[in-house]
Amino acid sequence: MKKITFFILLLLISIGNAQSLTGTWKMSPQAGAFGVGPNQGDTSWFANSLADVTTRACFFDDLYVFNADGSFSNVLGAQSWIEGWQGGSDACGTPVAPHNGTNAATWSQNTTNNTLTLTGVGAYLGLAKAYNGGELSTPTAAPASITYKITSLTTSLMTLDIQINGGWWRYILAKQGVAPTCTDGIQNGTETGVDCGGSCSACLAQINLPINFEGTTTNYTVTDFGGTASTLLADPTNPSNTVIRTIKTTGAALWAGTTMSTPSGFSSAIPFTASNRKVYVRVWSPDAGIPVRLKVEVVGTPTQSCETQTNTTVVGWQMMEFDFNNQASGTAVFNPAFNFNLMSIFFNFGTDGATAGEKTYYFDSVSYAAPLSNQSFEEAKISMYPNPATSTLFISSLENIEAISIYNVIGQEVMNLKVNDSNAVLDVSSFQKGLYIVKTISAGKISSSKFIKE
Fold it and tell me: What is the annotated signal peptide range for this record (predicted)?
């Protein structure tokens, strides 16, 4: 029941924090602004292309006006996209009554059910033919009202879904009068791509796995919720490395977390396979034994998600493995049909900030299938012997060794030690035979070496 409550609260907060509908909207000028498929959020049957923004310019310039007094207007101008059921030929043409904006209409939003209702014959959003339960075959059959599900609503973007007979239409609308930015998920005006070029003052690449938070050409904006506060900054343990610091405040909810991107998610879906559904995240925690949860979902469809959880084992940095074949208790099993392209991390999941007190965490090196090595660290000068080793491994450095981590060939951390000395003696007698990776942090520098256990 706790997990169900968590999902409900998260969805309510997402919509509750959204901006007002009042204002003028258009279809967002981007690929996938409207589409249809068998399930909500699935546009596998049809989705518009970027070229359609030009081909159907008479459709993409239609205005949907939500007035503050509750009235609504379709403002189509001299032409709109007219389909066969309206007597047209799927081309630009004169708007056809009653879907021409001449009838009076009103709008209402239900923030409890996350729905938007237009009342008035001929009032619509997106495509005029879609109504609750079907598609029109003649204009005279237009219903008195239509209700859309508000899946996502921000200051600049709104995603709506409507169920028809045997499928779902999805519409993405852009609010007019909102200054375009490089991170709003919209192909604004003269932009040459989504969030790139044209009217944008800079061109940042959309984030994608693997993530190391290095460089200035990727949009590393993250999204906090539930009472966390995250910042991109230098790693306190190594100033040459860049990480995300996440503070779980005293006012944080038990499910407070951080999405590793803007709401638009990754540039491509995580390429999960039947044999590998693992994600690795390098985490710094002030406490050992706290649960860290990772959630993947489909952008705009939070019900299409999967969660897994594991505990920290040390104070400080460690590489954590998250296996989505092992779902967190009470959450949905992994569905291979979903194209997961959004990821969130939850520190000390299940404990609120008032109970735990304010805590600071860090994360870095997010990767799929295998751990991401941190190449930004300057290599430390260490020596390691014997190699191969049977029971004891000796490591020494010209500088103080802070920590040593050992990983097997599939990236699992099998040993993690705090040292605080220039020499370390490791008992590897219980290790299985094979190749291992040793990462040694010495005076803020890291060395990656290999040894063979015989």
Answer: 1-18
Give the model confidence (pLDDT) of 10-30 as tens digits.
433 333 333 578 888 999 888
Please state, in angstroms and rounded to a whole number, the distance separating the CA atoms of residues 286 and 298: 31
Report pTM: 0.45
pLDDT grade for 92, boundaries at 50, 70 and 90: very high
Task: Provide CB contacts within 8 A for 295, sequence distance 6+.
Answer: 257, 305, 306, 307, 343, 344, 345, 346
**What average pLDDT does the structure give for the chain?**
85
Question: Distance between CA 26 and CA 80 in Å, rounded?
Answer: 13
Which of 24, 9, 33, 133 minimizes the C-alpha distance to 81? 33
pLDDT in tens, 235-286: 888 777 889 999 999 999 999 999 999 888 998 899 999 888 999 999 999 9
